[in-house]
C-alpha cells in the first residue's frame, strides 16, 4: 500500500497503523496528515468506541523522519518550533482530548517523538522486544511531543533526566516495571491483548471513559480541593446519563450491561 497510515474500521473500534516500515514508521508530513485524518474520523464517529494505534513492520515509530531534516537541503536555521506547532503538538493534544480510550500497541522500537506519541496514549501495551528511546540528545535536541511531561510525571526527575540525557534504550519490561506503560506482553500476544481491550471499551460506557480521562488529566496539576470539586462536577454529569441507569440496572438484574442498545 502507498498509504502511510492504515485505518481498519472494526466492530466498535478502529485500528490505526503507521505504515512506513522501511523507515521504522518515522513521521513525514504525509504521515502526520493521514494520522490526523484517521484520528478525526474516529473522534467524530459515534460507532468508534476505542482506538488502537500501532506500527507496521518491526518498529513502532522512529520519530521525525530525519531525511527531511538534511542540513544540506533545509539550510542552517530550520524552525523546529514550527513543526511542533503544526504537527506534533496538535497530535498529542488530539490524542489526550480524544473522548474515547486510545490504546497504543507498541510493536517495536519507539524512538524520539515516536516514543512520546506512544506515551500520549491512554493505555500503552508494548511487545517485550520493544524499546523506548529518548533519542533526541543524540542529535542535539530536547525531548518533545510531551516527552518532558510524561517522563517527569510518570517516572520522576531522576529517571526522566537520565533517560533524556543518555538516550538509554528502555526495554518494555523495565518501562512497565517503572510505571511508564501499562504492560509488556509476549510479542505474539500484543495485538490480541490490545484488540481485546478495544473490544471491551467498544461495548463500554464511552462518555464515562471520556470523563475519566478528563479527571485524571486534571489531577496532575490540581490541588486535592480542586480535584474533589472536579470529581463532583463530572460525577454529576455521569450520574445523569442513560449509561449510568443501564449500568446500575444491569448490576441489580445480574446481567451484562448493554451500553449500545440505543
Ligand atoms: O524535526 C522536527 O520537526 C522536530 C521534531 C523532532 C522529533 C523527533 O522525533 S527528533 C528524533 C528523531 N529520531 C531519531 O533520532 C531516531 C533515529 N533512529 C534511530 O536512532 C534508530 O533507527 C533506532 C534506534 C530507532 C532503530 O535502530 P535499528 O538499528 O533497529 O534500525 P536502523 O537500521 O537504524 O533503521 C532502519 C531504517 O530506518 C534505516 O534505513 P536504511 O539504512 O535501512 O535505509 C534507518 O535509516 C531508517 N530510520 C530509522 N529512523 C529514522 C530513519 N530514517 C529517517 N528518520 C528516522 N528517524
Written description of the protein model:
- With 262 residues, the protein is of the alpha/beta class.
- It has 2 domains: 5-202, 2-enoyl-CoA Hydratase, Chain A, domain 1, CATH 3.90.226; 206-252, Orthogonal Bundle (Lyase 2-enoyl-coa Hydratase, Chain  A, domain 2).
- Helix content is 48%, strand content 15%.
- The chain has helices at residues 29-44, 71-74, 80-97, 113-120, 147-155, 157-166, 172-177, 190-202, 206-219, 224-239, 242-252, and strands spanning 5-9, 14-18, 51-55, 59-61, 102-106, 109-111, 123-127, 131-133, 170-171, 183-185.
- A 6-stranded mixed beta sheet has the order 1-2-3-5-7-10, sandwiched between helices. Strands 4-6-8-9 form a 4-stranded mixed beta sheet.
- Strand 2, helix 1 (29-44) and strand 3 form a beta-alpha-beta unit.
- The mean pLDDT is 97.
- The structure holds ligand T3D.
- Ligand T3D binds next to helix 3 and strand 6.
From the structure above, extract its key features.
Lyase 2-enoyl-coa Hydratase, Chain  A, domain 2, 2 domains, 2-enoyl-CoA Hydratase, Chain A, domain 1, binds ligand T3D, four-stranded mixed sheet, 262 residues, 10 strands, single chain, EC 5.3.3.18
Q: Structural class, please?
A: alpha/beta
Identify the bound ligands.
Answer: ligand T3D
Task: Name the average pLDDT.
Answer: 97
Rg result? 19 Å
CATH architecture of the largest domain: Alpha-Beta Complex
Beginning-to-end CA distance, first to last residue: 37 Å
CATH topology of the largest domain: 2-enoyl-CoA Hydratase, Chain A, domain 1
The total beta strand count reads: 10
What is the number of independent domains? 2
Amino acid at each position: 500500500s502507498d498509504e502511510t497510515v492504515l485505518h481498519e474500521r472494526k466492530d466498535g473500534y478502529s485500528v490505526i497503523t503507521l505504515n512506513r516500515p522501511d523507515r521504522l514508521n518515522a513521521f513525514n508530513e504525509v504521515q502526520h496528515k493521514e494520522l490526523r485524518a484517521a484520528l478525526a474520523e474516529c473522534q467524530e464517529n459515534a460507532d468508534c468506541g476505542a482506538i488502537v494505534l500501532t506500527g507496521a513492520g518491526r518498529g513502532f515509530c522512529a520519530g521525525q523522519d530525519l531525511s527531511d531534516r538534511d542540513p544540506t537541503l533545509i539550510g542552517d536555521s530550520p524552525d523546529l518550533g514550527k513543526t511542533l506547532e503544526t504537527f506534533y503538538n496538535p497530535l498529542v493534544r488530539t490524542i489526550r482530548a480524544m473522548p474515547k480510550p486510545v490504546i497504543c500497541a507498541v510493536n517495536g522500537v519507539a524512538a524520539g517523538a515516536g516514543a512520546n506519541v506512544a506515551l500520549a496514549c491512554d493505555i500503552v501495551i508494548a511487545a517485550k522486544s520493544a524499546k523506548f528511546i529518548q533519542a533526541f540528545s543524540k542529535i542535539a535536541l530536547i525531548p518533545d511531543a510531551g516527552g518532558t511531561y510524561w517522563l517527569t510525571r510518570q517516572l520522576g526527575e531522576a529517571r526522566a533526566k537520565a533517560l533524556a540525557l543518555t538516550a538509554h534504550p528502555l526495554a518494555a519490561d523495565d518501562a512497565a516495571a517503572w510505571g511508564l506503560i501499562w504492560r509488556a506482553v509476549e510479542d505474539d500476544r500484543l495485538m490480541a491483548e490490545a484488540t481485546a481491550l478495544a473490544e471491551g471499551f467498544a461495548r463500554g460506557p464511552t462518555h464515562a471513559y471520556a470523563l475519566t480521562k478528563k479527571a485524571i488529566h486534571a489531577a496532575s496539576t490540581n490541588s486535592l480541593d480542586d480535584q474533589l470539586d472536579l470529581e463532583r462536577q463530572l460525577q454529576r454529569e455521569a450520574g445523569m446519563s442513560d449509561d449510568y441507569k443501564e449500568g446500575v440496572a444491569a448490576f441489580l438484574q445480574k446481567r451484562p450491561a448493554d451500553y449500545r442498545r440505543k
